[in-house]
Each structure stands twice: as C-alpha cells, then as structure tokens.
Amino acid sequence: MKILAIDTAISCITLAAQNDDKTAVLSLDVGMHQSEKLLPAISYVLEQVQIDTTELDCCILIEGPGSFTGLRLGFAAVKALQLAVQCPVYGMTSLDAYALPYQTWNGRVLVGIDAKKQRYYAAMYTNGSVTNQPADADINTIITWITQGTDPILITGPDAIQLHETLIQAGVATSLTCFPSTYQTTAGILLQRAEYLMKNDGEPLSVYAGPVYLRKSEAEEKHGI
Fold it and tell me: Do the Cβ atoms of 136 and 115 come closer than 8 Å?
C-alpha cells in the first residue's frame, strides 16, 4: 500500500511515506520555516520509497489541535494532492494519535500539547476510550480530571515532560508516569491508521474538511468573531 502521512500540528513537522514494505520518515524542527520546507519534504520522503504522487493509495494527516499555522499548511498540502490525483485523505486528531500506543496501559492516559498562555490541549483516555474530552485546558482543569480517580496516570504527548513537571509543582499526589511522544512513533501510528481505514472502508475527510481547533485564533479573539 502506498501512503503519505503528515503531522504539522507542532513546530517539529513529521512526514512518512510507505510503499508496501519500504518506509521513510523525516522530522524537521525548523520553527517558522515550515512553509518553505513542507513541499520539498513531501517530495523527499516519496522519493525515498519510490512513489510518484499519482500512485498514492491515500494520504493521512493530523487534524489538530495544535499550531494554527502548521495545521493550515498540512491541510493545504494534502488537499492539493487530493484534488490533483484523486486519492482519499484521512484524518486523525493529534490527541488520539499520541494516546493510541498506550491503549493497554493499566490506568489512565493523559495527553498534553503546550497551547501557550499556561494552557494545554489535553484529553484523558482509559483503555483507548476518551474519558475526559479534548479541551483547551488550564492546569486546574487537568488536576480536576486527575482527582476523578486514584489509578496511575501515564502522561504523553510532545510536551509531556513540561506537563508532568507542572503537575508535580502543583502538588499532585497521584502516581504519574511520563512517556513523551516521539516523532517516529507518531509517523508509524498514522501509517497504521491509514492502512486500517483503507482496508476497512473508512470514511475519508470531505473536500471541505479543515483543521480541528479547540481555541479561537488571536485574530478571531481580537475581532470578536
């Protein structure tokens, strides 16, 4: 199966291409230069596994939440491919992707992405199911989630270490384990998810689909939109 996966939800963009048993993964921590690097990076990973864009069976991307700019770039890239080569595009939320490797964890899984302004895009999972819905949450909200049970909690996501330290400083007494997400793991999760959806007639994103935001942009807040 020929698949392209893109994660532009955080500052380090990650791309992966799979051509049956060949896989290429590329991570670029390039800050504000994502727009310059994304298309050449797509070409690079496809070239490494000898895929032409016209051969793609599908694309998959992280829908959000995450960086407003990064998510828009990711959607623009895959929508262009969708229109050009008519391949289906699948989506997966960032929080689901970061939680999925730990669905058999004997406890709860807390996923956190630094949303700035002393807040996190966060959600809580138990055995792969959401127990606290994705939210633009402050630390007190997250502590409230934690105190709803006594079972151990695994913290993951790209900013797991920061969230873990903040919770410790806040005096959270529940057993906390920290496993930050790796870019390679996220790429693998996306490829596996795309393959599963293709084989099981999963519903692709519509041509009108856009990023998943849990917060208004600064421009929207400024103008009261």
Answer: yes
Reading the block at residue 204, the tokens are: 């692709």
Beta-bridge partner residues of 98: none
Cβ neighbours of 208 (radius 10 Å): 6
| Bond before 65 cis per omega within 30 degrees | yes
How much is the CA Rg of the chain, to the nearest whole Å? 18
Q: Over the stretch 38-97, which tens digit does the pLDDT of each residue have?
A: 999 999 999 999 999 999 999 999 999 999 999 999 999 999 999 999 999 999 999 999
pLDDT of residue 223: 45
Strands 89-92, 108-114: pairing is: unpaired
Q: 19 CB contacts (<8 Å, ≥6 apart)?
A: 2, 49, 50, 51
